[in-house]
Amino acid sequence: DIQMTQSPSSLSASVGDRVTITCRASQGIRNDLGWYQQRPGKAPKRLIYAASTLQSGVPSRFSGSGSGTEFTLTISSLQPEDFATYFCLQHNTYPRTFGQGTKVEIK
Amino acid sequence: QVQLVESGGDLVKPGGSLRLSCAVSGFTFSDYYMNWIRQAPGKGLEWVSYISTSGYTNSADSVKGRFTTSRDNAKNSLYLQMDSLTVEDTAVYYCARGGSSDYWGQGTLVTVSS
Question: Any alpha helices (H) in chain A, and if so which ranges?
Fold first, then answer.
């Protein structure tokens, strides 16, 4: 199975801060990776697909980069509604595997 | 718009069975692979199973032989039959669309406890 190592597991940041979250795959997955936002009790929402393509309707402050084994989600200027948990998902092979999640909290 | 709504979660005793459903709308269900994904309390996400457009299924080793995934294209519905449940199966269960899981439902809670 492909292991997805996500870091950090949590972070505290202020509105307006730039935030970066990383996922590392245990083997190459091309760009078969998505980034998701999850709020308590809500359906996970995909923000980025194909590692770097912004999902329609998602604010442009979200961006993704990377290919192969190293991937990054960046929020350029954190907004109040962005305080949530973020996770990555590789869909290169089955079983699908996930990063452990990053909880973004208010400083 | 795309919607996925899970149902069927409940409290069940170890060794018991449960059937989850996922009703979809807003897209042509028969054109898509579908996945089940779960999240145990305080834990990360775990892929459970998928079903192809032709009905081929695959599942995680942790549920193989106990869980069965099926679909009814006429009813725009996905199902997860869960048998021989254990406490480790306690989780919120999500259905998600497509090989890349672009849309997810809100989940349904399954609690396995005596």
Answer: none
For chain A, say whether B33 makes contact (Cβ under 8 Å).
Answer: no
- Cβ partners under 8 Å of residue B42, min gap 6: none
Calculate the alpha carbon distances from A29 to A1, A3, A55, A60, A92 in Å.
12, 11, 20, 25, 6
Residue pLDDT, tens place only, B52-75:
999 999 999 999 999 999 999 999
Q: What is the C-alpha separation between B90 and B41, in angstroms, rounded?
A: 8
The closest of B43, B95, B51, B88 to B69, measured between CA atoms, is B51
Cα separation values, A11 from A18, A21, A43, Å = 12, 9, 22
Give me the residue from A43, A55, A95 closest to B47, CB to CB: A95
pLDDT digits (tens, 9 = 90+) for A74-93: 999 999 999 999 999 999 99
Give residues with Cβ within 8 angstroms of A90, minimum separation 6. Answer: A2, A4, A25, A29, A32, A33, A96, A97, A98
Give the mean pLDDT of chain A. 97
CA distance A31 to A92: 8
Task: Answer whether the bond into residue A80 is a cis peptide, omega within 30°.
Answer: no
- CB-defined contacts A:B, below 8 A: 49
